[in-house]
């Protein structure tokens, strides 16, 4: 799916050769500041590499339009924005930005169930806890239905039990819908239990 060859970005990342497979769960681990978020941003074309090439489905990323790429490959940042307004507004905002059709309230309620958010669609999103906001942002990108999910510590604000439930559902969803999941995690347990493929980043290099 992604193939990185001799990719350099400032003095932050230096990746000789890395393949991230399609339809699999890839976990990215490594110490703080090692370059994990930077790697996700490169894959999402939020930043551009200085040299080398990244291929997405055998096509150089440098030849793919950024906006078009971000319809297929969606990134959930570490601290996603929650906008003023209701839970429903916050779920729909991704679809609006992507100029995709709005979905029914039934579909939105299904998403709330998926992310274990026991709230009403019309409740104020700003009043949610940190972990609830994190799940809401996850719901927002699930609605976008991309080919690839790039998730930066999607469960960092969740307790162990909720983390297990949400990641398990995400992994099942990935497998049964032919999606690709690429997820930064600080949790060795999550990587071991759910990763088909584990990438360890150390000081900007891939070490496994
Ligand atoms: N825009 C930037 N300009 C300069 N340095 C940056 C920039 N973004 C990140 N860095 C540096 O690059 C290194 C890697 O950052 P990155 O956010 O990718 O690490 P990380 O592995 O995701 O860390 P964490 O687990 O703490 O989120 C860090 O030393 C960081 O300070």
Could you name the CATH class? Alpha Beta
Instruction: Supply Rg.
Output: 17 Å
* Quantity of strands, as a count: 10
Low-confidence stretches are none
Hetero groups: adenosine-5'-triphosphate
Strand content: 15-25%
Q: Strand order, main sheet: write it out.
A: 6-7-8-3-9-10
Which fold name is given in CATH as the topology? Rossmann fold
Number of domains: 1
Tell me the CATH superfamily: P-loop containing nucleotide triphosphate hydrolases
Helix content: 25-40%
Q: Alpha-carbon distance between the termini?
A: 19 Å
Mean pLDDT: 95
Q: Note the run of SSEs as H and E.
A: EEEHEEHEHHHEHEHEE
Q: Which CATH architecture?
A: 3-Layer(aba) Sandwich
Number of helices: 7
What structural class do the secondary elements suggest?
alpha/beta
Which of globular, elongated, flat, extended, rod-shaped describes the shape? globular
**Main pleated-sheet profile:** 6 strands, mixed
GO molecular function, one term: ATP hydrolysis activity
Domain ABC transporter: 2-207
Protein name: ABC transporter ATP-binding protein
InterPro entries: AAA+_ATPase, ABC_transporter-like_ATP-bd, ABC_transporter-like_CS, P-loop_NTPase
Describe the structure.
The chain is α/β, with parallel strands linked by helices. The chain has one domain (about 1-205): Rossmann fold, CATH 3.40.50. The chain contains seven helices and ten strands. A hairpin with a 2-residue loop joins strand 9 (about 195-200) and strand 10. The longest helix is centred in the C-terminal third of the chain and has 17 residues, at about 160-175. The mean pLDDT is about 95.
